């Protein structure tokens, strides 16, 4: 007999696929498939950006980190909040205007090529390769999180859980493209928000009071209450540096490009930041209160703390809804990553280099087939059930933040950035992340995004200042478009 939790899950999955089918009927062109025809309202934009950003990390990785290490993990949340706000404030309006004005750029590589009038196509090809490389790891992290959820909920083998989760995500992303991804993200973001309020609140009621929580945590390990426990200045900077990643995440930047109009951005920013801050606090409270609830006996896998609380504290039907929120967090990021990766193949390789005259219908189907291929590769990489969600996310986040972040900021805020500056900066940032990560424990135990970001920005500026300057055509076009956002 099917229990209530399973039934809730099945209904949720059917709903997501249904949204994909509806979006399929509204998707006629590559622009529709990649950016939804630039038609997203502020609410959908905000929750879609937030849900695709946070992923399973918010409900699995962050509560697990607080449960295992205590309040010193709060610096990640602080850095992310500051970075997200600056991204909405500085990048969102400029990128929305520039991408539409610069030959209606549909992807980040498309924008970079148009921004620097790069006839060699090196910027497009290189940035597309970076997207495919790091999104492979990012997508794998989400699939690991989803498989852990199915495994814990339905007591099924990890491999079976992995492939079932991947199949559902492939289905609606394949069918509906950006509209399906954005609409499902809106639903998923709402579920995540509610779950991150309900779980810590109910757990706190079971424990008794916040004083009881702090007393229990202190009994387990008094240092868990200290945000500066085992932290150095460099360590705090390293955790807070997560916020730098926002400026270079293609799946988040795509939401800025797709919003209906620039005047909708302030409302979208308000909704998005409110959702994010409350969600981060909910995740941190969940991890801390769980220490008091479970006592000194730690869970075998701290990243399952949210799952276990959902199962032991609630009626199976409610538990199913809360666990669906975790699945929502996972799916909302994977689908966005698959779509951006598919867009890189379809728009930046297939149409621009292989088949310039390809009809729209053909391009949409190339995009759909690309979704399937990329998802299968990522699923194969995720077959290692011992992979840490937080570790996989941190590597991909650093890769994008260091390779694209400084280039996006400079390209939108400094007219003097040259094509060669952008090209060499991007390469140096990506290489720095890979080399830094390859060192045992990381050089100086510093998160690789920070040195990568600094190297990328520094190289881009130096090459632009002392190498071949930006072309006159690029400067004129930059001045023309910049006048529109003043």
TrEMBL record:
Pfam annotation, one family: SSF
Family: Belongs to the sodium:solute symporter (SSF) (TC 2.A.21) family.
Record's subcellular location: Cell inner membrane; Cell membrane
GO function terms (MF aspect): L-proline transmembrane transporter activity; proline:sodium symporter activity; sodium ion binding
Functional note: Catalyzes the sodium-dependent uptake of extracellular L-proline.
Residue stretches spanning the membrane: 6-27, 66-88, 122-140, 160-183, 190-207, 227-247, 267-294, 306-330, 363-383, 395-414, 421-438, 450-467
Keyword Cell membrane tagged: yes
Family annotation (PANTHER family): SODIUM/PROLINE SYMPORTER-RELATED (PTHR48086), SODIUM_PROLINE SYMPORTER (PTHR48086:SF3)
UniProt entry keywords in alphabetical sequence: Amino-acid transport, Cell inner membrane, Cell membrane, Ion transport, Membrane, Sodium, Sodium transport, Symport, Transmembrane, Transmembrane helix, Transport
Membrane topology: Multi-pass membrane protein
Official protein name in the record: Sodium/proline symporter
One annotated GO biological process: proline transport
Catalysed reactions, as listed in the record: L-proline(in) + Na(+)(in) = L-proline(out) + Na(+)(out)
InterPro entries, A to Z: Na/Glc_symporter_sf (IPR038377), Na/Pro_symporter (IPR011851), Na/solute_symporter (IPR001734), Sodium:Solute_Symporter (IPR050277)
One Gene Ontology CC term in the entry: plasma membrane
